[in-house]
Amino acid sequence: MNRAEAIEALLPQTQCTRCGYPGCRPYAEAIAAGSAEINQCPPGGAAVIGRLAALLGRAPLPLNPVHGTEGPTLLAQIDEQACIGCAKCLPPCPVDAIIGARKHVHTVVAELCTGCELCIAPCPVDCITLIARPPLPPPPEPAVNRLRYTAHTERLERRARERAALLEARKRLASTES
User: Fold this and answer.
1) N or C: where does the chain have the smaller number of CB atoms within 10 Å of the terminal CB?
2) Closest CA to 74 of 131, 8, 143
């Protein structure tokens, strides 16, 4: 296991971007490269900072308030009476914990939700709130979060490549027809 992988294994895998990086892996790589401090992860808080400090042989630092504050593990909830089915909450969810389709009510799969908060801002009717995660169901394991995040990211990248290829094919077709 390389240094970035060891660091990533200690992060909570919420993929919340609050550290200033697009996910836990890029943050781990930045720490390993020496371009990020170990105190930028609010979901991990003091516990993760302590584990990172021990791994890297550094002194623990207090959580940098620029990135947020430490708090309870969160869970997103959708007010299904207010949901208009716009589907704007689906793409930002880094672990695909929200299910639904356009023009249909959406819901959060509690067993998968990391409480990252990324679904809140795109909701045009403010029907998504975060609550302290109840004891059951327990939060997903970091390894599961990492796998779901990787699958989510790969799917988005594949769709972007497919769209780009389709656009290129249409351009070629249009240029041969003129």
Assistant:
1) C
2) 131
